[in-house]
Amino acid sequence: MNAQPTQPQAAAPLPTLDAQATAALEQLLGAMHERQERLLELALEHREAISGADAGRLGEIVTRTRTLLEEVASLDAERCRLLGVGAPRMGASRNAGDDTAGVKLTDLARRAPEPARSRLVERAGSLRALMERVRAEHASLRAASESMVQHMRGLMQQVAASMSHAKTYSAAGRVECAGSPVVTGIDVSS
Questions:
Q1: Is 97 left (phi over 0), alpha (psi -120 to 50) or beta?
Q2: What does the alpha-carbon distance between residue 78 and residue 38 come to, in Å, rounded to a whole number?
Q3: What is the pTM (predicted TM-score) of this model?
Q4: pLDDT (tens digit, 9 = 90+) per residue, 101-121?
């Protein structure tokens, strides 16, 4: 039997997005970029509030951040919908439960017709960089918050140790107020 080597078939060229999908992508990228900019502003405000130990302002910033993250989640659902619509047109495979298999917003932007393509690819790259900056700022805030919590725990342990009449150690090796309350006073005026 003469078996001839089979030539791999060239992939069909990926189609461009239609005007409606291009407009939807442009609108989505703009909205996502605006929300990420606001998240970055809030993260910087959060840092200032932590530095100033302003609990009231921290609470307000956390509430505003939560609201903004809900908006981001809504936009992400729109992103998934748009990718789900755009992915089959781009020849992407669809795995069970994953309508956006391997297709990114930048991939869709590259399928837009010019002159929108250049603008969308640039905007998608800018969005990616901004999201990375927001992620890094939030990681820094988390580290600062954890450090502040550890500092407060240390202060509480010192207060507990100074107020302990028995001066006995717990299983953790620290003087702690456990069980019945310690009746004592501490002068914080000096």
A1: left
A2: 19
A3: 0.66
A4: 456 778 778 888 888 888 999
